[in-house]
């Protein structure tokens, strides 16, 4: 059994981790911290966990965390970089669901997050936790940076095309939309049901923090990596709870048929348990992955022109955060990669 | 392994059964029938099942069904009563999720469903599948009638009060609301998203088919059973997918304190894995049971007056249909009652 | 033209007032106050008003307010009672949309709102603004207390029965549900879309502040008024923006036929522009009154038993708040009661 | 008063026309036809119109329609082209909300709609009813083809850029999303609330019928019109009722600053009552135009790169259909263009 603790469990990635870890056959959950709610039973905050989790939130205790095999951080950015170094020193492995260790270029991180990075050297060591790209590195990682939700959906959608050098990396366009759980559990007027139900809007269109992560990830998968990808990325807020849908446009550099594109995607993801390439002509639906670690993808070539369209859906809290973290945990600890992640989506 | 078939799997109770049975460790799913879609892969209709179910819908074949240990009917009313007798004769056990065998009084059934009952003698043998009331009978059932969604939420809410004789059975009021999946997967204008989103309405307030089932069930649990319960039952349609919320009012016949009521409920359901009595002062939320077989219940006494209020929530497709059917299957086949039904709710 | 100001215009009743008053042919809107947003253009906060309202929020200025014919208060409770006395003294008429002057019994008010009332004598003078009950008093009111949303839907549903003495006033049961806009525009976790979409729950079931207002109103309309009504009132939160649906149960004291009940309602509301009694067998939908001052009502007698069921719907921000305030304004200033309130509902 | 009839009033564009026309001060509504519902009062189908419309649906009667000044067609494609010629001959003016007369190239129409066009010569005479582009022609039109919903939002978003020749017309990308009312009122499984709530998906991504209309419209506004625009257009279905949001990407051919782009848009639409260019940095919300004839637009240049991003929102049933039809009617009959279209949006 892996001894596990969660730092910062009162948000949506926290409760999703709890849902998955309490049911995981190889995990012993020993602590879940929250300064604000220390002493409150977890199941009081999240009644869905009544009968599944007997823990109460507790103050973070270095001794307790240090005695774990693995600590998840489900905290706002800035927290993990302050607390992780001490854990790493003690030999504890860490999976950080926040943005703290996703970017390797520290000035870029500091520019987008508006603060100094507290552990720049660790950022260099951190392994980016997208198993479909760097499974081997994940296996040996001590510090794992779990990808953002948009970056997961978008990278998985474009990776086959960029690896094969089929599209112009400087003309990438991503129009993506997320359910409101992606914006977190904090009480903000702009996230109220009364503000967002029967409503749709873009946000942060002039620059979203996931942009540099997307461009970093796409750069790595190119055959030579010399051309810096340029992505126009527009996120939107959907009047629903869970799900990310990425609508991805790229310019073909050579003439490929729809069949060839389909085969490229199918062959790229043949051995991936959590990426499902849909048949030609399908449109993936976010509900088809609700609550699961799946990414479902369609590729098409509208009107037979030179723009290749990829549609990619994930659950923002699952493959976009907590379930992908569990997938990486499975890899890090030599377990079957799908352990605890086998349930089909809840549909309808 | 239990050899199982599903008759009529293209509706929402069908896909929910598939979600649960494909993940059930003791079930071998051998066939799922649909005349209209025979030949179509199940996962084409329900993309959430891609990778989980390789079956295609097939024509119902008496030989194939007859070779099963258990056949589920997830069909509109009228279908099971025509096909079940032949299966029963062959010794196959049957769980019917439709209304065909829920009422033991045949004239009542015929009045509410507007047609002649095709197997009235079987209706007498059928066991009503509410494990919290008649677990022992379920264990030995050959034909099990799975309760309706509203009747499950409502009976579980009132059973402790009626068993204890604390309330007037002739003054029962149930105001209940269901997510739209309760109305089925048929294309009807009145069920469109454009008709129901940002909208709320009652329906069938002058008489819903679940009323006689509710009254029949409540009659049985009374200490003497002599007084026929009279329920005013008003169902409503919620602008959401899953969940039933029952708001139940009854008149106390003696003076009980809130504490005594709370203790009554806690003690009644202490050994039930799927009924959760919330702490005093709580309000159950439908999402806290989403996708699960749980019923969560609160009991209170507003203003300390003589009306006792019970709030009861279930997932209409799970405890209100398919998961409850699996619970009964577990009992019928001597398995652990919670097998395959352990996952926490998807929240948010 | 009536010179009008609004105190506290940043909430939902505020923006709804602005929507109605900017289009009202007899109103000159001179000021809208907000300490927090003073200086911010109204249309910046509410882009729906771009091109319709050129005002900016301003600090409340006693001189400016004192020069108005009418001041609306769209503030949290406690604010109006502090500021209204000075305006009344200057001869300004006031319509208060908050709860400050709805209850005439001050100890009751203080008990439910947990604070001392700052203007108890004014509470006695205040006219309760339900035109269908006390239109004549409204015409001469200097201080008008606009009813709450639930109390409006519930009183209009029961008034015909209580006026006629047909039902037992001590056995009234109201199960009601509101869209999330009823809970206001403040950023609270429990009002997030991610917490409430695809979810339904009761709240404040052991006692909601609208209860004493409902019981006060129902007492007044009884033929003798001697029996204090006792209402069990359970509010619920709907996963939608606008609309209140009240499901009302009462016990008939004599035997009335459905036809007689229908006629009673039709005759009671024949001359009311904003109460619409639906044909026998109908179920009102909240969307059928969206954005309007209408209340639509159905009355029925399920199973021909002795419980009379009334279904009543309003738009919580319109007939439940701002549009009803405008209706009262029209009466107070001798205008046609429907002026500025004629638009049909937005459906779908 | 303009004598008006509506052919085919049982769909959403029909009820929206009724909402607007019953409140229009210069319109006398004389008939609304529906073969299927002939005899049924309009207000029975659409309870929002109780008290606003006393008409019943009637069989289409050539004499009655022929006696009108104006007939609206709110029918599926194929109907208007069969019935319009007779009306035109009698001198009746016609506004067709269907797709029948939107495309001037008949082979293109026949290819996309899969049937022979019944009145190709009329298609040549028909005026395309986008007032912001061809107001003068609309004034004199006898037969007006009302634009589609997506084409309205998309053309208004791109027109300033194409007129000014600033972007490459062959690299246009439109990712757009519509509320479910855009798909009509027919009972189809794929439009159920239970299928679409908490779900998001693209559809018809390989080719939607609005594509040729968009490309036709964009071709016309170019300075020389010689380069055929090529648009990649991906529509999506939103879990909400009303609203279209278009996210538009184009490649700048010269270097413009954000300020210059903003000025271009503001100057282009300065005199348009129904196009609102938002301040720099804003993101339009669909709810800000709900129920209105407004189009709200933002323009930006993410990361200062060479892709110009335009966000454009309309109400698909209003500016995307019925309200735009009324706007054209106002122009055709010499009325103030905004008559009957002045109400602010319903927000929240």
TrEMBL record, chains A, B, C, D:
Residues 3-141 form the Semialdehyde dehydrogenase NAD-binding domain. SUPFAM superfamilies: Glyceraldehyde-3-phosphate dehydrogenase-like, C-terminal domain (SSF55347), NAD(P)-binding Rossmann-fold domains (SSF51735). It catalyses: N-acetyl-L-glutamate 5-semialdehyde + phosphate + NADP(+) = N-acetyl-L-glutamyl 5-phosphate + NADPH + H(+). It is found in: Cytoplasm. Keywords: Amino-acid biosynthesis, Arginine biosynthesis, Cytoplasm, NADP, Oxidoreductase. It comes from the Bacteria. Its EC number is 1.2.1.38. The keyword NADP applies. The active site is at 149. The keyword DNA-binding does not apply. InterPro entries: AGPR, AGPR_dimerisation_dom, AGPR_type-1, NAD(P)-bd_dom_sf, Semialdehyde_DH_NAD-bd. Pathway: Amino-acid biosynthesis; L-arginine biosynthesis; N(2)-acetyl-L-ornithine from L-glutamate: step 3/4. It is an enzyme of class 1 (oxidoreductase). CDD domains: AGPR_1_C (cd23934), AGPR_1_N (cd17895). Coiled coil: none annotated. GO terms for molecular function: N-acetyl-gamma-glutamyl-phosphate reductase activity. Belongs to the NAGSA dehydrogenase family. Type 1 subfamily. Catalyzes the NADPH-dependent reduction of N-acetyl-5-glutamyl phosphate to yield N-acetyl-L-glutamate 5-semialdehyde. NCBIfam families: argC. HAMAP family: ArgC_type1. This is N-acetyl-gamma-glutamyl-phosphate reductase. It comes from Microbulbifer taiwanensis. The lineage of its organism: Bacteria, Pseudomonadati, Pseudomonadota, Gammaproteobacteria, Cellvibrionales.
